[in-house]
């Protein structure tokens, strides 16, 4: 067992599966379970951890001690990679979209406390983060670093997310008819599709896009999962509520009410937006009576402090 695997065995266990009771679910004869990936770890949780796991193992195997990645000023991914680097003894650099004054916000303050170095770049430069020339230049500047893409979505993210499906089939005897996730960079959606293909091919996987004009994510799924057409899956692009991190009054009300009714904390950027879309689909009789729906709680609760600071939620 490697150093990282040994530490992980002490830090992180399978996340629980929690069945939700609600009058609407009873009326529609539906079962809804929440995969509580927000409970994986107090600092490193949700889909960001799932996507990072095999990237970190790759870095360790190749004796790489420095991780570089990208994110916005309130990025869950930046928060997670800073936490993982602290616990697993990596040096970390975050390339942040925006101005240096963001460094004092709750997300980046905590990242710095964990030892992450921050480098702020303007939005024009940030848009080059996936361009080969920019990445080559960055690698030349940091020859001994491993560069992880924004959101952590790459080929190494897929096996980590597949583990969600593997855990699910061990946690429930009831077949999973529908599996839902919030979708930003398509890594989690792709991993669930790949996992369903391996472990439960009768399951229909759904991604709720949290940003506008997200149809391009289907190409990303095709890149990550070449066999994606062998599974019945859907990308729902009409539930973005105005765009990424846009929070309508209806969405905010739903999130607060859901947390009060279930005692499950959610945020409105990812999991809350996904669950609100799911609730609308339930009201529209999208699901056959008797269906078992599983929704993945992808964490991101650290972002609540930033939303409150911005008076958005």
Describe the 3D structure:
This protein has about 325 residues and is of the alpha/beta class. The chain has 2 domains: about 5-40 and about 155-310, Rossmann fold, CATH 3.40.50; about 45-150, Rossmann fold (3-Layer(aba) Sandwich), CATH 3.40.50.1100. The protein is about 45% helix and about 15% strand. It contains 13 helices and 10 strands. The chain has a 6-stranded mixed beta sheet.
Give me the secondary-structure category. Answer: alpha/beta
Tell me the overall shape.
globular
- Please outline the major beta sheet: 6 strands, mixed
End-to-end Cα distance, whole Å, is: 43 Å
SS summary, helix count: 13
Neighbour order of strands in the largest sheet: 1-2-10-7-8-9
Poorly predicted segments: none
Named at the architecture level, the CATH assignment of the largest domain is 3-Layer(aba) Sandwich
Strand content: 15-25%
Report the order of strands and helices. HEHEHEHEHEHHEHEHEHEHHEH
Into which percent range does the helicity of residues fall? 40-55%
CATH topology of the largest domain: Rossmann fold
Number of domains: 2
Number of E-type strands: 10
- Our Rg estimate from Cα atoms comes to 19 Å
Average pLDDT value? 96
What CATH first level of the largest domain would be assigned? Alpha Beta
How do the strands and helices of this protein lay out in sequence?
Elements: H1 3-11, E1 17-20, H2 23-27, E2 31-36, H3 46-61, E3 66-71, H4 76-88, E4 91-97, H5 106-113, E5 117-121, H6 123-126, H7 132-141, E6 145-147, H8 157-171, E7 178-183, H9 187-199, E8 204-209, H10 217-224, E9 233-236, H11 249-262, H12 271-283, E10 292-297, H13 303-309
Parallel strand pairs: 2-10, 3-4, 3-6, 4-5, 7-8, 7-10, 8-9
Antiparallel strand pairs: 1-2
């Amino acid at each position: 067992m490697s150093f990282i695997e040994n530490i992980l065995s002490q830090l992180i266990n399978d996340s629980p599966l929690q069945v939700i009771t609600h009058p609407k679910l009873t009326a529609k004869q539906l079962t809804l379970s929440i995969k509580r990936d927000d409970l994986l770890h107090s600092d490193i949780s949700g889909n960001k951890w799932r996507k990072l796991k095999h990237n970190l193992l790759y870095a360790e195997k190749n004796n790489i001690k420095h991780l570089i990645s990208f994110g916005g000023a309130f990025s869950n991914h930046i928060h997670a990679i800073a936490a993982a680097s602290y616990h697993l003894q990596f040096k970390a650099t975050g390339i942040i979209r925006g101005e240096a004054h963001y460094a004092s916000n709750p997300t980046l303050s905590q990242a710095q406390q964990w030892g992450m170095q921050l480098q702020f770049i303007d939005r024009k430069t940030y848009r080059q983060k996936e361009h080969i020339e920019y990445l080559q230049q960055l690698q030349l500047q940091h020859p001994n670093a491993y560069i992880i893409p924004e959101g952590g979505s790459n080929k190494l993210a897929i096996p980590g997310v597949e583990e969600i499906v593997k855990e699910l089939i061990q946690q429930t005897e009831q077949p999973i008819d529908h599996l839902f996730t919030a979708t930003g960079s398509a890594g989690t959606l792709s991993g669930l599709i790949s996992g369903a293909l391996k472990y439960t091919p009768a399951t229909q996987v759904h991604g709720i896009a949290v940003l506008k004009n997200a149809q391009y994510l289907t190409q990303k799924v095709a890149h990550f999962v070449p066999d994606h057409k062998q599974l019945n899956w859907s990308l729902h692009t009409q539930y973005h509520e105005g765009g990424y991190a846009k929070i309508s009054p209806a969405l905010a009300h739903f999130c607060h009410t859901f947390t009060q009714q279930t005692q499950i904390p959610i945020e409105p950027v990812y999991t809350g937006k996904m669950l609100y879309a799911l609730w609308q689909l339930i009201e529209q009789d999208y699901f056959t009576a008797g269906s078992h729906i599983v929704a993945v709680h992808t964490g991101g609760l650290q972002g609540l402090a930033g939303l409150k600071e911005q008076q958005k939620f």
